[in-house]
Amino acid sequence: SKGKAPSHNETVHTIQAKPREIHNKEKKRKEKERKGKERKGKERKGKERKGKEREGKGRECKKRKEKKRKCKKRKEKKRKCKKRKEKKRKCKKRKEKKRKCKKRKEKKRKCKKRKEKKRKCKKRKEKKRKEKKNK
């Protein structure tokens, strides 16, 4: 199947749009160049000023970096602490599980013993009944 031919309206608009786009691109490029020149001038002025201001700023910057480092260390410490707590909690849970398991085993053992006792008792009663019959 062939694509349909563009309507008159579409062709007119696309043709009109082209020169406009070119014009806009040109405008943007010139604007960029102008801003670039302005920026270069500003940078030069800034560089002259920077040298004079730097003397006092160095120490402040150093202090700020120190502060950041301390903060980082504190965060690291906190994270390690959190991990340790997490580990402890897991360990606690594991111990709890073990204890419950132990209790359950204990219960089972007691139950087994009780059943054993019952069985022995039943056997004894059975024996007695047989003896009674034989008499």
Structural commentary:
By secondary structure, the chain is mostly helical. The chain has one helix at 8-134. The chain is built from 1 helix and no strands. The N and C termini lie far apart (113 Å). The mean pLDDT is 83.
Q: Could you tell me the radius of gyration in angstroms?
A: 45 Å
Helix and strand string, N-terminal first? H
Shape: elongated
Q: DSSP helix count?
A: 1
Largest sheet: none
Average pLDDT across residues?
A: 83
Total beta-strand segments = 0
SS class: mainly alpha
Low-pLDDT segments: none
Helix percent band: over 70%
Distance between the termini: 113 Å
- Indicate the proportion of strand residues: under 5%
Summarize this entry quickly.
This protein is mostly helical and 135 residues long. Helices cover 94% and strands 0% of the residues. It is built from 1 helix and no strands.
Outline the secondary-structure elements.
Layout (H helix, E strand, L loop, with lengths): L7 H127 L1
